[in-house]
Amino acid sequence: MASAINGTNIVLYEYESNAIYYFNGGVSEGSISGTPYYQMSRTQITGTPTNFTRSADGEIACFITDIGDPNMATIPSGIWVFKNYMSITDNVTGGPNFAIVLYKYNGSSLTFIASSDSHTLTSTSATLYTTNITVPTTTLTSTDRIVVKFIILGAGSRTITLYTQGNNSAFVTSSFALGTPMGASTSCSFDVTTDQVEVTSSNSAWFRQYKNDISTWKVSCDGFIALKGYSYLALMQKQLNRESIAVKFSINNDNGDGSGTYGYSIISGTANITSLSLSAPVEGTSTYSLSLQGTGAYSISGTQVIDGGTAVSTSGVTSAPFIASGGEYTITFVGGIGKALISLTRGGIEVRTINTSGAPTGEDVTFNSLTGVLTFARALEADEFVRATFS
Fold this sequence. Notes:
There is one protein chain. The protein is mainly beta. It folds into three domains: about 1-15 and about 180-315; about 20-175, Jelly Rolls (Sandwich), CATH 2.60.120; about 315-390, no CATH class. It contains one helix and 29 strands. The strands form five sheets. Strands 2, 3, 4, 5, 7, 8, 9, 10, 11, 13, 14 and 15 form a twelve-stranded mixed beta sheet that branches. A six-stranded antiparallel beta barrel has the order 1-16-18-21-20-19. The radius of gyration is 25 Å and the shape is globular.
């Protein structure tokens, strides 16, 4: 059995009713059957524009999600709304048009999911088009990726351009209901109580008897840090607006040596912020304390503490351990490519500032999600233990 059960972090999520994927034409995802594919990611790249052209009917560009994305059991039924800029040279005579086709990819073959109606091009200049696809409920495996193909029809000898990145970004609002990580804590507690109703009777043999009634759960967080794009003001605003938040309480069923043999268990639910306090020590790092009242039932997923347990990725939260040889300034986490680094411990101490660009300073780090490279300002010591948590 595991010799240690460590509550390594709690992650709070802001509700995002529909996940948005961006078509990043400047990021190659390799090729499938000789056809080049480009990145379809929940992270938008706003740098140099990357456009695609075609002067005949057929595929103008193909996109695929990163490995491990979406990591869902199903695609919920709903409308996928695509927004993209296109143009055509010379004229629009004859009604040149395009269509969008959606697939899933299991690593060896594509499976058709749904397609749009053809959409007629109306201008020779870059024009924004909105295209809908009605997507049925579709079963996925944890390793399935999503593929989108843009198809040109009726081009003739004219050149059609599909624009991505820069000022003419292309994206789709999917039917995936995902949350955006907004904060994490390394010191937290999860408490659940169940009211008892006495049912003692003359048949109780001189002992009181009870039955379970209504359950209540709550979470307390100390040393809470807000993640990129959020602050204590945002949390205060959520409390002021009476908004609920999603909570994922991550338990590392460790075997005591940091190898993570027994994997993670995740307790998930919806909670209300009941109290929020800010600590700002002199020349110290500001942290927040939160009290959360659960509303409705919570759920449990992932592995359990049993011999032979295996590491899992649950609801997009994964953990990666690393033991340093000594002197390293960088670590490459292949499993972190295309993901957000939401928590990092170094020698058991939480790293407070995780940059996404630039050179780190002091105790800060910089993580490049495109390459999975984590960079430290101070070299790692021999046998120093690092644990990264991604979402």
